[in-house]
Amino acid sequence: MRLAFDQTFGQILALKLDASSWGDRDKNPLDLTEAYLELRPYPRAGLRARVKAGRFLCSGVARESLSRLESPYTLSSSALDTWVAEELRTIGLESQLEWLGTRLGHDFDVGLTAAVFGWNDPAGVAIARHGFALDDRQTTLFGRDGQVGAKPVRGFELFHEIDGKAGIYEGMEVRYLDRIVLRALHYDNRGDPAALIH
User: Fold this and answer.
1) What backbone torsions phi and psi does residue 128 show, to the nearest 5 degrees?
2) How far apart are CA 56 and CA 100, in angstroms?
3) Hey, which residues does 18 pair with through a beta bridge?
4) How far apart are CA 110 and CA 128, in angstroms?
5) Which is nearest to 85 in space by CA: 54, 49, 118, 56?
6) Which of 83, 113, 130, 133 has the smallest number of CB atoms closer than 10 Å to its CB?
7) Residues forming beta bridges with residue 108, ordered by sequence position
8) pLDDT band at 66 (very low <50, low <70, confident <90, very high)
């Protein structure tokens, strides 16, 4: 079961909550998958901006859907999107700036994304433990990792800050006449592999 709440405050600020209950005896019967505030000022001079703060999916990683990691093509998400929904959750601040060239008579639009985040130092542990899989279960904020049937690792928290260093990601997207989309993303949680969970 999934519940979503989307509340606007005025015309440019919104609160978005997404909660899930998977019925598989997780720590919490209902838990958050996303919770963030989003500021979307009015476009000006062909530029559109957006700022998000809270817990959300890393923009530009999901291949099937830009919003909720749900595939319009298959019953479950792809192996890549299954991994993203399981391990890559941003808890921080993200900003996006788009140049809307097609609305100004040009053939393409360009978007830039940058973010700073924390509490994702163990990213990569779950996929190293069990490899890629096909599933539609998203890991919740306070629950175990998302893989159904995976044995929990004692004392392991998927969204945890270990070394006190903020992670970053930055990306770029170019859309040509809404026919061709080219995306590039650099994601680095800047986790120290030598640091230990205390």
Assistant:
1) -70, -30
2) 24
3) 4, 34
4) 34
5) 56
6) 130
7) 176
8) very low
